[in-house]
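Lab notebook, bench 4. The sequencing result for the construct came back, and we need a structural model before the next group meeting so we can plan mutations. Quick request posted to the team channel:

Model the 3D structure of this chain.
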Amino acid sequence: MIGGLFPVHEQTNRTREPGPLSCSGFDVQMFLRTQVMIHAIREINQRVPRVLPNVSIGYDIYDTCGDVSLAIRATLQLLRNQSDTRSCLVPEQFQTVLPEPKTKAVIGESSSEVSIAVARVLALSSVTQIGYAATSQVLSRKLKFPTFLRTTPSDKHQTKAIVDLVVKFNWKTVIVVGSDDEYGRYGSDNLEDLFKAEGICVEFIEILPGNFYLNNSTHVDVTELIHRINESSAEAVILFTWESNVAVILEAAIQHGLNRTWIATNTWSTSQTISTLPGIEGVGEVFGFVSKRNEVPGFKDYVLSIFNGPSNSILQHYLADCPDLSDEFSCLQENRERDCSTTYNHASCLTNHIDQDMSYNIYLAVEVIALGLRSLLKCDAHHCKRSTDFTALELFTEIKKVNHTFNNTQIFFDSNGDPRIEYDILYWNWKKYKHYPQMETIGVYNLDEIIQVPDDLVERMCNVTVTDFNCSKTCEHGHELKILEKCCCHYCIQCADGEFSPKKG
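Done. Here's the predicted structure in token form:
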């Protein structure tokens, strides 16, 4: 049995006061990611020759709504067969390992903050946890999170990749915006250190409250942030926070007519929510990083047949949320291309919302669990020699040893439980579609710290020697270039009495 933790809904009604929680904001892409897990498990169970002869993998998937408390409740539910209502106190002969759970491995959660909380619970039973999107460096600390593995690179590499791109494009000043959580805080701090080492000036770092999109009062802070960016000399703005937070920032940028160069992290570089915001084409150029993309084998065909297949509770809830289910779930608007960016009640529309980064990471997670099981149960093409009576720790030991290539992607885990998967460097190209970008892969960054982007693009960026933001300035007579306090660039300041400026050449 494999557990799954996915924020199928994006938010809860949580307030400062205690009380029951409800979820809202159905996320279609996250719904599809749950289906990737189901599809991958079914494919392994039906594959010929069998990966696990006479053994089938099951799944138990929960919606966490991106909330730590709900995720912990779901985790405890996955481990439910080990509860003992008679024992409230720690016994004298206390054992650090709890009774063996039925669920031997868990895929998820999406965010680092939630994954950290879940990892502490799962480690008590030595249950393998495989993250498909949680990238915080903290999760690499094996003393704290001994059974956490992941199929996406750590932010240790993502932050270095961002800095190397800035250096490659000859940008001299940047702004970093993060959120006060495990993802944004650690990423922003790491970027600051790396930029300093490269001699890149960080004009300012703004750390907004975690999940600030839920708090209307922080929108005033976002307006002030947009004003500071507009007044700055920064050549690139790095948004190191969650998709929902980035949406608030870029909506404000659209509203105030701010046009800059943005660098996207893996949380939002392929976000359809953000890339289809009305007016998003006016915010400027967007470069992004995402773990190496690939197509999940057979998944698009699975989605095309999804409405004719077996029902499940997530699908039923999804269908109930659709505004119009008539005409066999057909897309009803005249412009089908535009329709499929906003309407999800038809399988052919759903296929447009399949991503190739997190979905592929989920697929890899299922595959490595299956290979770990095959090794543990000593299976060949005909039968498995060992019974399915094994511990979660035994399975973890075998999963961590997996070293296999899937569709040109080699997956293995280092001593920190991290893979050596490279990044795709993306560029949002607005030329093909009018109101939303085509996300083009323009380069790669491997974990040997080698960045590869087209020479003509590097030449174009490096030849931009005079912009409004890159500090290349000359002054009028009677002024001199000086650095003001807390500024990266020289500004033209009137000469003091008795001083003069040289004649311009």
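The chain has four domains: 2-13+22-81+98-152+357-401, 155-293+423-462, 310-353, 473-505.
Will bring this to the meeting.
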